[in-house]
Amino acid sequence: MHKDKANIDYKNPVIQIRGLYKSFGDMKVLRGINMDLYQGENLAVLGRSGTGKSVLIKIISGLLRADKGDVNVLGCNMNTITDRELQDLRVRIGFSFQASALYDSMTVRKNLEFPLVRNKKNLSRKEVDSAVEEVLEAVGLSHTINQMPAELSGGQRKRIGIARTLILNPEIMLYDEPTAGLDPITCIEINDLINEVQQRYNTSSIIITHDLTCAKSTGDRIAMLLEGQFQKVGTFDEVFTNTNDDRVKPFFEYNFIE
Amino acid sequence: MDTTNETTTPVKKNGSSFALKLGNFFREMSRINAFIFRFFKEAFVPPFEAKEVLRQCYETGVRSLTLISLTGFIVGLIFAKQSRPSLASFGAQSWLPSLVSIAIMRALAPLVTALICAGKVGSSIGAELGSMRVTEQIDAMEVSGTKPFKYLVCTRVLATTIVIPILASYMALIAFLGGFVNITTNEGTSYTNYIDNFFEQLKFLDFSSSLIKATIFGFTIGIVGCYQGYFSNKGTEGVGKAANGAVVTAMFLVFVEEIIIVQITGWFR
């Protein structure tokens, strides 16, 4: 499924990052990231393992704090945000983890209910059930409602992980390696799901990946994260076609073996 | 800003010099204090996770009953059996029920219960939270706007604090029966006589100090297990370390607390 790029509102950035730095001990991971994510846009962030792609979205979601720089998410400055504001903001951001991070001790139903009943306390049992059924239907896994996470395949776990974030109707989706460890057919299904989610829920998304097929099929723009900075940002063709950059070329060649 | 930077900046434990180790020790202590402070800050403000506290009480209590029953009975039985020769050499076998009661109430019931729970419950809490940490389940709770500390830590610590005194009382009762079986078999003491002698030397202070001790042990086991699991890292290796650390640290602290509480109780006696 290909997404409709006409819905992107380039006048309305939902995430703005300026001069972002992050280090762990002596290791400088992010070294001056500048980025805008617009309403309705999918931005695929590509880069090798350990280049700080996941760190970037953890800073956006408030799981990590930036050493330096401004991070504005849906109008909130992450440097000055209070606990209360952060909690409210997180409800507006969906985070799909690389390993899905489903709660092992809960059924699929309980996994999906968990964020909903804790954030929207005035919902009736019927409304909760209906919300659960709706997101399960959206990811095409209605039949797994009473299963435990251990009984699901890797692709199903990814889908349930995405469904759990969708249940709060997020405005921004952050996908951490959505296709990692999946077979090619399931990867295509997940890519389609990412596009479907964007269109159905009108979200803006950042897709962290090192899978070029995923980046190409889901990203409106691609950002190449190299040496702690976005070295190339643009459409897939702008970044990869006829590039002479020796850091970008091998990435393309190894992903698409001709 | 509520940040989980704490999860990614563990205290370095591989320092070579004494000063570095000392520094790490004090940093670790300050983190533990902050953890305990956070528990008191979050546990008693709404919304309360009453359902989850009850579920954890069930997990902690009901699932430990068999082990506590068996151990309690054996403790009472063996203690009476081993104490008999010493008392017999003074012709004081009739004091055996009193000796058993004092030993059980003042020390054995809370201490043995705490040690069993440190092994069974503490390790289970450490491993469970550790596994949730390394599989990013705790982060997933955090980013979905829920409060993992309140849901995972406060509920477990409250459960161990509530349930372990109850388990210690239950163990005292079972040990009482174990002692009775041994004494009545060997001395032919009647049940009423045994009860009279059993409670003769016990005072209110013995009951209350035993309960307070068990409550403190329960809190310690819960908080140590949660701390080890909540800050676990380094993948599956970290989960094993969290479970092991939960048991070793909790047992050590239980013994230290036992010494301190015995000293304090001694001043009131």
What does this structure look like?
The complex is a heterodimer of chains A (258) and B (269). Helices cover 36% and strands 27% of the residues of chain A. Chain A is built from 9 helices and 10 strands. In chain A, a hairpin with a 2-residue loop joins strand 1 and strand 2 (27-39). Chain A is globular, with a radius of gyration of 18 Å. The model of chain A has no long low-confidence stretch (mean pLDDT 90). Chain B has one domain. Chain B has helices at 5-8, 18-43, 50-61, 65-88, 96-134, 137-143, 148-187, 191-200, 204-230, 235-268. In chain B, helix 5 (96-134) runs antiparallel to helix 7, helix 5 (96-134) packs across helix 8 and helix 5 (96-134) runs antiparallel to helix 10 (235-268). The A-B interface holds A 24, 58, 61-65, 78-83, 86-88, 90-91, 93, 95, 97-99, 101-104, 114-115, 118-119, 121, 164-165, 168 and B 1-5, 8-9, 47, 131-132, 135-137, 139-147.
The run of helices and strands of chain B is HHHHHHHHHH
Q: What share of residues are in beta strands of chain A?
A: 25-35%
Binned strand content of chain B: under 5%
Would you identify the regions of chain A where 5 or more consecutive residues have pLDDT less than 50? none
Q: How would you classify the helix and strand content of chain B by structural class?
A: mainly alpha
Question: Residue share in helices of chain B?
Answer: over 70%
User: What does the largest sheet of chain B look like?
Assistant: none
CATH homologous superfamily label of chain A: P-loop containing nucleotide triphosphate hydrolases
Strand elements of chain B, count: 0
By secondary-structure content and strand pairing, the structural class of chain A works out as alpha/beta
| Helical residues, percent of chain A | 25-40%
